[in-house]
Design goal:
Low-confidence stretches of chain A: 425-434
CATH superfamily of the largest domain in chain A: Glycosidases
Structural class of chain A: alpha/beta
Strand content of chain A: 5-15%
InterPro entries (chains A, B): A-glucoronidase_C_sf, GH, Glyco_hydro_67_C, Glyco_hydro_67_cat
Shape of chain A: globular
Pfam families (chains A, B): Glyco_hydro_67C, Glyco_hydro_67M
Protein name (chains A, B): Alpha-glucuronidase
Number of domains of chain A: 3
Organism (chains A, B): Cellulomonas avistercoris
Oligomer: homodimer
Helix content of chain A: 25-40%
């Protein structure tokens, strides 16, 4: 079912009615074949609504229906490509073929994105198949407002679309709208509660199942399966057992019964997401078991039903002593998990953050992704802008994710991250020989905000995430362009041009005014990682240090003299990162402690780079204000005002970053800025 | 009336039954003369309870009663000293004479404190009179739990004794116990709600009056008058007016009517405490009026009833730009208020924090106290340990307050702070010639904690505050000894010795492991000013900077080259502080920016002083753990355990302070610690 937005005040994101005009003006035949599921109904309803609005016509036919008299044929056929669709143009008719209604829905939106161009000259079949079979969004939404973390942990777009007033919302119309948006970009999995599972939220697995089913009913018609984050301590917390030990038969029985109940209520339930033995969450360590024992416990409960465990590899010592330079948080995931390769059941996916620390704007790629060929792996990205400006800053993350997914991490350089997590041939060497793949996951950035994402332009991140999860080789700037066309259909060309000006390189601009050269953090702990605080995490328990002194800065993670983290990489990366001469500038301070006068590949000293890039970046951000102001009247007023207000804040905040970071390094190094720009 | 503690779990502080044994074992005659007020009943009840418990006898007589057959005579007589009492010993009878029952109550407790020594050899009359006529405690208690500041702002002892569940408590027995404690040390005024007056709390002035009266009824029998903190915006917030402009007749009428209602309900109501145009609180600036206009508005409403306005001088720009080194928060109170000297009505007291910043462990004395001879002044201290370890650290503040009150600030060196705020002859030069004095105020440190103050030893701060407010010339270590004797009556002598070991110099020890040489702050903004964060306030809006760079540290507040703050002092202090050669070490960095190699009067360099004093102080704190452990079994178990637990935390926290501050300065200065102790 396709629901319209319940309130005219909710922004349609990239699916305004006008974006469907090229489709809606055509005569469309839909043939669902034998697929009688709810997604087919969505396809029909999308076409019905678009054609009704834009003067076209819908015919619902079958495989006997002629394509004559139609501009577009959407057809479920057994020869459609697995998980995808094929589009061709022949005899003036555009034909989309998919093996099931879900593929057809994705093909339908492919036509929407193409617009009139889908109805041009004849062309040969083009097949589109997602690289990653699971393309998930994780919601860090809480049912009860958490006293510190709020309704949505790391949420910057208002409340939760799922929960309010301590319960699952009665009115889930925003979820229905959201499901439509996700289905349109190929997302097929969603975990609806925070990985930090508090007491109330734990009960979704038991008392809350009817509510979870209501949510799943809204995602299902868009090809999206529902997952729950669960507490490893559930047998104790919910079941009244005295232990959650994976080896305990009562515990095993409890999980099996819990899974049985879930699937009795939601037959296509996706599975569990688990954060265990991480930042205080319970886990198998309490019982002397390891992560494989823990994950397999849950996997065996889900297996009879076809469910999957997404087990997070984000495990490290969060009570570190800042005095201790031998312990390295960056090493932790590899040290914990690499030895377990081959021990996880086949329905366990190990969910690995893209970098070894925590969603920084710049990190090296996690070496765990190269280290576990006999394990299903998923890479975890962060759409919500925890470390990238809280959706107050323009920071288009498509280019970051594109780099991550395309990074040739494995020893065979053709095995980039996307291929690793997609389980493409060559990666695996397991008894079964053809383990299913892992996938791509990310933390969502939506809330009950009018614009979904707080900053209206942050919608582009959600869009790009879905599109890149389907096709990691897509050009992120082209995806941005696609998003602009859909979101601002028919807009003055200046809108497109200005959005490119603001957004194309906005990630690099954000990086340029924040922590330099891959050193990370320098965010304010007191404001949830927003704004500058150069020493904010320097003397903390979190393992996130830059070690700046009057002579230099950076973390020595070399094998020769440092923590040895560089040695966790396969060649050539271990050598590349180990050697100051080959380590890329943007990761220099992640791998090396260098004097301020160290000369970068760019030819600048470290300290002058810090000075220059911060000042230059603020000049760039400042220029955006006028550029955006010139769009007044060319985009909807409310959206214009919201972006304008956030740009003002971005300028203010970026200026703080610039001045604090420059001043910090001047006070420490004593080196004047060669350009003479103000310093304090 | 004297109430017993309602719960055996509430610690009796310095009034355990045993502390009253020397009195209670005697035959006591009480003669209240013509004073038929509630305080007289308290005197009688105190004696009745003590004698009943300890085998003595009470006779309630009149001025015809013979002193024969009594050990102690407590008598209200017209010739008693104003506000005080006289004690003598003659013919084996101890006689206390006071002009009213309140003085007699204070005399009674003087006998309690003296114990058996009050019944020794005959001696001539000794008169005790309080130096400050108003000796107040301010409670920063909220009715509604504030989302950031909690039930008690800067409270470290549990919830409020006044409020719970969004209303004034039904059961106010803790307030009655508290009133008895306050009366016993001579406190005579209490403001029962936070100076940051939020919406619910504002209504105490109107809808809440019946509840305020219930509280006042409990303080009155102990000689304590009740005050309210009020919002300057009350006419708008409570009265529905469109303005709170002091010049507006409707506003004036509103305040007059409000005061009339208060006094109709509570005839001995003390008055208002006001934080206006400070840290976001409303005030007269919004209407183009100044603080005198604002204070006088309220004063005129109170004047017909004998009430007083305590108007806080804590006014500064709390949206400062850290880049701006010309603005100096330290200057603010003087700049705002000194020009207004002589403009305040006679029932206005200007309440001035002892230092120019904010209750730091070490600040120079506020120059405002020397600058307003035609204004009634009160000095404000902080018993609650906002900046001195949150009542997790042993930090006996008596010596700090003793220094403050005894500081010879005015040009006539005999005019110390205590004399200034007491309006003693020589200070004033006003038309009326005999303005009443200001007083001494402080923020209370009690809550609904079993031990009143979280850390049991923090009770000594409350005790010493009251005693010093009565007699600023008292020796703080003697007061501590007095407190020990009362609180641990009959204890093994090792208790007394150990408490002196821990507490006598604990303020200096705390100073020695925290921010050095008067520079202040370096506390963690993210933990409410607890624990170290050297740069925590360095790039903030709060005007609290140390300006450390690789070469040196400190704030240049000289007239010659700095902010000119030193020039706000009368001679000789302006010259003393201005000159590096005469500025005392402990305030060096408050007044001067110096290189790390600057040699202190102590002979050490600044940086070596930082290294040494932090390390030495932690060694001291660490030694306390064993010293306290040796008292196991010699003090009540619960109290022993509570102190032991807090000492462990103090060692942990002090160690953090030591290591972070030492490391910070090593990283900045590059100067090694000459002693070779560990640095990171």
């Amino acid at each position: 079912m396709v629901s319209a937005s319940t309130s005219p005040r909710v922004h349609p994101a990239w699916l305004p009615d006008a974006a469907l005009a090229p489709l809606g003006a055509r005569r469309v035949l839909v043939d669902l074949g034998r697929d009688a599921g709810p997604v087919g109904a969505t396809v029909v309803e999308e076409v019905r609504r678009a054609t009704a609005a834009h003067g076209g016509a819908l015919t619902v036919g079958d495989d006997a229906s002629s394509t004559d008299g139609h501009d577009l044929v959407l057809r479920v056929a057994p020869d459609g490509p697995d998980h995808g669709f094929t589009r061709l143009r022949t005899g003036g008719v555009t034909v989309v073929v998919a093996p099931d209604a879900t593929g057809l829905l994705h093909g339908l939106h492919d036509v929407v994105r193409a617009g009139d161009a889908a109805f041009g000259a004849d062309h040969a079949p083009v097949t589109s198949r997602p690289v990653a079979p699971v393309r998930m969004l994780d919601h860090w939404d809480n049912i009860d407002v958490h006293p510190v973390m709020g309704q949505v942990e790391r949420g910057y777009a208002g409340g939760s679309i799922f929960y309010a007033d301590g319960r699952v919302r009665e009115d889930l119309s925003r979820v229905a709208d959201y499901a439509r948006l996700l289905g349109s970009i190929g997302i097929n999995a969603v975990a609806i509660n925070n990985v930090n599972v508090h007491r109330t939220e734990a009960r979704l697995l038991t008392d809350g199942l009817a509510d979870v089913a209501r949510v799943a009913d809204l995602f299902r018609p868009h090809g999206v399966r529902t997952y729950l984050s669960v507490s490893f301590a559930s047998p104790v917390v919910l079941g009244g057992l005295t232990t959650s030990d994976p080896a305990d038969p009562d515990v095993q029985a409890w999980w099996a019964a819990a899974a049985d109940r879930v699937y009795a209520t939601i037959p296509d339930f996706g599975g569990f997401v688990v954060k265990a033995d991480s930042e205080g969450q319970p886990g198998p360590f309490a019982y002397g078991r390891d992560h494989a024992d823990g994950a397999n416990l849950l996997a065996r409960a889900l297996r009879p039903h076809g469910g999957t465990v997404f087990w997070r590899a984000f495990v490290y010592n969060h009570e570190q002593d800042w005095r201790d330079r031998r312990t390295d948080r960056a090493r932790a995931a590899y040290d914990h998990f690499a030895p377990l390769d081959g021990r996880f059941d086949e329905n366990v996916v190990l969910q690995v953050k893209y970098g070894p620390i925590d969603f920084q704007p710049r990190e090296p790629i996690s070496p765990v992704l190269a280290a576990m060929p006999r394990t299903r792996l998923a890479v975890e990205l962060q759409v919500t802008q925890e470390y990238t400006g809280h959706q107050k800053h323009v920071c288009y993350l498509g280019p970051l994710w594109s780099q991550v997914l395309g990074f040739p991490l494995a020893e065979d350089a053709t095995r980039d991250v996307a291929r690793i997590v997609s389980g493409l041939p060559g990666h695996r060497d397991t008894p079964s020989g053809d383990l299913p793949a892992g996938g791509i996951t990310a933390v969502s950035n939506v809330g009950d905000d009018e614009f979904w994402t707080g900053h209206p332009l942050a919608q582009a991140n959600l869009y790009a995430y879905g599109r890149l999860a389907w096709n990691p080789e897509a050009d992120p700037v082209e995806l941005l362009d696609e998003w602009i066309g859909l979101t601002f259909p028919g807009a003055d060309p200046r809108v497109r041009a200005t959005l490119h000006t603001l957004m194309d390189d906005s990630w690099l601009t954000y990086e340029a005014y924040t922590a330099p050269l891959g050193v990370g953090f320098m965010v304010d702990p007191g404001r949830g990682h927003y704004g500058p605080n150069v020493d904010g995490y320097e003397y903390s328990k979190w393992g996130t240090y830059h070690f700046a002194d009057r002579d230099g800065i950076g973390v020595d993670r070399t094998v020769a003299t440092g923590t040895g983290y560089a040695g966790q990489y396969p060649s050539p990366w271990r050598e590349t990162y180990e050697d100051l001469a080959t380590c890329p500038d943007e990761l220099l301070l992640f791998f090396h402690h260098v004097p301020y006068g160290h000369v970068l590949h760019s030819g600048k000293t470290v300290v002058q780079h810090v000075y220059d890039s911060r000042a230059d970046a603020v000049d760039v951000v400042t220029s955006w204000v006028d550029a955006w102001a010139a769009l007044d009247g060319l985009v909807p007023d409310g959206l214009h005002a919201r972006v304008a207000e956030r740009l003002d804040e971005q300028v203010r905040s970026a200026t703080e970053w610039r001045d604090q970071v420059r001043t910090y390094f001047f006070r420490k190094s004593g080196v004047p800025d060669a350009t003479g720009r103000p310093i304090y």
